[in-house]
Write a structure and sequence with these properties.
The chain is α+β, with helices and mostly antiparallel strands and 87 residues long. It contains 2 helices and 2 strands, in the order αβαβ. The chain has a domain of 54 residues. Strands 1-2 form a two-stranded parallel sheet. The longest helix is centred in the first third of the chain and has 14 residues. The radius of gyration is 14 Å and the shape is globular.
Length: 87
């Protein structure tokens, strides 16, 4: 079975998070659609342990706030500017 681009990219990100220097930082990943979450889980089959400071959040309402699965606590698109994390 051919690996999709999304699965390949998720596998690369998961691998990077698990090795130095990235594994020493409190990194977070936010997934904005079920397809991305599926690709993330498929990449887990490599067996790499995610570091202790890592966090994963699923926000299926999407970056623009217009996905089919809305979040009643958020109105409008997310703030994509670099700055302090809100979660």
């Amino acid at each position: 079975m051919q690996e999709t681009e999304a699965r390949f990219e998720n596998r690369v990100v998961r691998t990077m998070i698990c090795i130095s220097p990235w594994s020493s930082w409190p990194l977070q990943v936010k997934l904005f659609c079920p397809e991305a979450a599926e690709a993330w889980e498929a990449a887990a089959s490599r067996g790499l342990q995610l570091p202790a400071g890592f966090s994963l959040t699923k926000e299926y309402e999407g970056v623009d706030g217009k996905r089919q699965i809305p979040d009643p606590q958020r109105t409008g698109p997310i703030d994509v500017k670099d700055g302090e994390s809100t979660s």
